[in-house]
Write a structure and sequence with these properties.
globular, about 325 residues, 10-stranded mixed beta sheet, 11 helices, two-stranded parallel ribbon
Length: about 325
């Protein structure tokens, strides 16, 4: 299905039919609730805390949509694998992150992303979007046209991978005869997707409302720092054994005394752009409830700060809960 807008570059191409998909597990007493998981790199772990607190309060979403890291967390939630994702996130150290960064010596991204894909496939291999128990879609961007692509069918892992394929960092993903990159370029917080999938009440999660904060730089841990002396997995040993590779990664991600590296500059510029786009889209199509974790102290590469990020997500959801009742009273 193809919807045309006045701006050809903002066309939306939906990969798969719009519909409820899967079994309707929504409570009969309330309208369908959708959650739009926004982009935000390492701050995405806050999504885990948000959705956990919402579910504890009896607000388990019936419809899920995600962009970039929001596609990763939203997809794991939709597949019933949120606990496994939380365990993985809480176990990350700088060394383990460094071991997952498989430099792509050829192609259009610094990192191939194959190691992360292998980890996802251990839990989600063979899972397709259309077989999920609740409607799910993730947003990607087609390179050739700039179209917004809604991925609604096919392998879950590949769709999530396309949605978080940060330009210049991860390789683009080839799906359905299209080359796809990060969906945050066109729809950072996919409120519109939740509405199209039938949600009457939409909760948006904005991870970048306080984007004017300092980021961090990934670097190899030094001796004596947390995570340095812990045992390394086979994948981590393979990632850390190549001196040339490590040197390239330091150049790419930068060093504190020399300022940000190539990736730091790319990600900072990318996030400034998506922040402006998110503000514009939220103004035109606001969610019924917006949850904004105060994650300014979580750098865009601080994937090892999952515990703090998850806690911030829970706090943000707690603050927002009273406003959900207001939206429910109006929209029921």
């Amino acid at each position: 299905m193809l919807w045309h807008s006045h701006d050809k570059k903002s066309q939306i191409v939906q990969d798969g039919p719009v519909g409820t998909g899967g079994d309707d597990k929504s409570p009969a007493a309330r309208p369908l609730v959708g959650v739009a998981f926004g982009s935000g790199a390492a701050r995405g772990w806050a999504h885990i805390g948000v959705i956990q607190r919402l579910c504890e309060a009896g607000i388990a979403p019936d419809v899920v949509a995600g962009t970039s890291v929001g596609a990763l967390v939203g997809g794991c939630y939709a597949a019933g694998k949120l606990d496994e994702l939380e365990e993985f996130a809480r176990g990350l150290t700088r060394r383990r992150i460094f071991g997952l960064l498989d430099v792509a010596w050829k192609g259009s991204g610094f990192i191939s992303g194959d190691r992360l894909t292998e980890l996802l496939n251990t839990h989600l291999g063979g899972v397709t979007i259309e077989t999920l128990p609740r409607p799910f879609a993730c947003v990607a961007t087609e390179i050739a046209t700039g179209h917004e692509i809604w991925l609604r069918r096919g392998p879950l892992v590949e769709s999530m991978r396309a949605s978080y394929a940060l330009p210049g960092v991860f390789r683009p993903v080839h799906l359905s005869e299209r080359w796809l990159i990060d969906g945050a370029l066109v729809n950072p917080i996919p409120v519109s997707v939740c509405r199209a999938l039938g949600a009457r009440i939409v909760i948006g999660i904005n991870l970048n409302h306080d984007i004017y904060s300092t980021g961090t730089i990934i670097q190899s841990p030094r001796r004596g720092e947390p995570g340095h002396d812990e045992p390394m997995s086979r994948e981590e040993k393979a990632g850390a054994s190549n001196t040339m590779r490590n040197s390239v990664l330091r150049q790419v991600f930068g060093k504190p005394d020399n300022g940000p590296g190539i990736t730091g500059v790319l990600v900072a510029a990318f996030n400034i752009t998506q922040d402006r786009l998110a503000r514009s889209r939220l103004a035109g199509d606001p969610p019924d409830l917006l949850i904004s974790p105060r994650s300014g102290d979580i750098g865009l590469f601080d994937f090892d700060k999952a515990a703090a990020s998850i806690a911030l997500g829970r706090e943000a959801a707690e603050r927002a809960l009273p406003f959900f009742d207001d939206a429910l009273n109006v929209l029921s």
